[in-house]
Amino acid sequence: MLNPARLRRAVLKHRGAMVKFAREMVAIPSFSCKEEKLVRRIAAEMRKVGFDSVKIDRMGNIIGRIGSGKKKIMFDAHIDTVGIGDRSAWKWDPFKGKFQGGAIYGRGATDQKLSMVSMVYAGKLIRELGLTGDYTFLAVGSTQEEDCDGLPLLHIIQREKIRPDFVVLTEPTCLRVYRGHRGRMEMKVVTKGRSCHGSAPERGENAVAKMSPIVLEIEALRKRLKKDRFLGVGTVCVTCIECKTPSLNAVPDECTIYLDRRLTVGETLKSSVAEIQRLPSVRRAKARVEVLQYAAVCWTGYKVGQEKYFPTWVLPEGHKLVQAGVKAGTVALGKKPVVDKWVFSTNGVATAGRLGIPTIGFGPSDEVYAHTVNERMKVEDLLKAAVFYAALPQYL
After folding, report:
1. Which entry of 45, 145, 367, 381 is annotated as an active-site residue?
2. CATH topology assigned to domain 183-297
3. Active site residue 145
């Protein structure tokens, strides 16, 4: 029987070790495809606190296991980060692991490698307090999520053959229980023209001019997209435009725009591509519409890739995983947590969106700090998240 007060007291004993581990993690740069050093540091901590097994898979994800029961519960934190941008804009060194005023500062503090600290020490709490049972606790540090959300968990499940019954994503949720988010996809539209000298443009066919009405029609399309009461409205926007031209004194013969498409309930890859293809200006220009492809070499040397389509997902509020999350959140917070959704995308596009595995989110910190020069993590959040992760299996 779980004793909530005992669990909350127990995590306080590990505060110092958790802060030390968190600061060391922030101090290790872990950009996408360059996570090796951090992976090995996490492996050392997992072994130190008593995980039954620690594995680094072919893609470079780290998977720690406690127990070998029937129900497999996977907790995921992506440990890669975006870059730091203009270093002079930071008030502190993004890789120092600054600790001040009860918070840890630096790249990845919120988004989202420090959630791994809570997951690792949740494993320790499960061991210490005798909370093991007929379940397997899997703590995953996934790589390359910032480049291609969902891909690392898709690899673990399909290639490494580790299929969980439930998934908990530890992206920042302000210690709320999240049960879905919009999907997304990346597309490009290409128009072709005929180049000629800029002094006589009438001799050619300007690919950029062909693209101009397409951009306007895409902006108009955005106002007609579907809306869902829970997830909100689908969106589309032009994020980049480029052209090919022999010189700045020549008419361009090719123009490409790139689209960020956010997908609400009922919107799919097929329907979203068709919407663009049906635009009158696209048809007049005989423009090509394509879904972008992702391809990369992992830090291990393993090659990966997929189309850049990331499905929408929602888990019903009455699902037993959501309700277990509410109970675990009550243990961690001392009050019933809010149930909500993410604005951004997560690895849930693979587990729930593609594979239909029940998935929720509960993470420390606030997503407003993600990708900012003010990125930070409150230590109190790390402690509460560790309690949640240790408590959740008791309610499934």
Report:
1. 145
2. Alpha-Beta Plaits (3.30.70)
3. yes
